[in-house]
């Protein structure tokens, strides 16, 4: 079976980074797969795919030139002649569905987000009625898709994250050491990093706190504004930029923060857990299903700098707890998203698709 895997863009993000693991499982089932990107953006996912030996085609276009994107993808898919079109993210899903229908090819669509604009939800319901299968990337997204997209019989769940069993373990805090705090992700308004900076500013007058440092690993449109905010408040903050080795970065931390307004699964937070980091997080997407509040991390309300500052102060005053909480965090995520769980969910999806082979055990 030839599968065309169509995605909005080839920036480095939560929908892009798991693609090699996903496609490897497809290949085990006898599929030949090519990735088609409607936009390059920063293009940082391209080397990941190339390193994994996955062929990729990317359009040199922009975010809103939908007609040009449609005709490019139609030409590409007509030339490739796929047996199945598998899409990721809303724009790719809508265009991929229209083109697949014209080519008389079945479709499978990922649903990554537990939030959709009203117009996008309406378009997905209207245009994707004949989809062979919808795949939610987490239990949270599956519940959302049932409610918002009214999906039932053709919806399955494949958590998109494969927790690496060899993930490096974050180092334990030592007496007198600066407590290293970090967050990994695109510097975008959805991540709530402005609120995070406000929370750090609230800690400034607290003289009983040990020394700490916050590192943002990632790049994006909010970087300049966040740098200005950090400088204005004289915050103990640094900006790492794009991180090519996220697990190595995470292993240098003692505590991880995820302050998103919304998420799907959130690969970065689960990578942090795989590295044995305790997490302070908002209840975004799948994260509160993975973080045991008070055991492996702390869950705070959305957009509440005061609550985040209070949670940070609690853990900063008791840094000896961080290692134990991190060990519990790693155990939890390996159980939920380790290689065996990833393969089990993926094989259930792939064996439900007519024409794919069952791999030899």
From TrEMBL:
User: SUPFAM superfamilies of this UniProt entry?
Assistant: UDP-Glycosyltransferase/glycogen phosphorylase
Q: Which InterPro entries match?
A: Glyco_trans_1, Glyco_trans_4-like_N, Glycosyltransferase_grp1
Glycosyl transferase family domain segment(s): 180-330
Tell me which residues make up the Glycosyltransferase subfamily 4-like N-terminal domain: 13-154
Q: What keyword terms does UniProt attach to this protein? A: Transferase
Transmembrane annotation, as ranges: none
Q: Name one GO molecular function term.
A: transferase activity
Name assigned to this protein? Lipopolysaccharide glycosyl transferase
Native species: Neokomagataea tanensis NBRC 106556
Q: What is the lineage of its organism?
A: Bacteria, Pseudomonadati, Pseudomonadota, Alphaproteobacteria, Acetobacterales
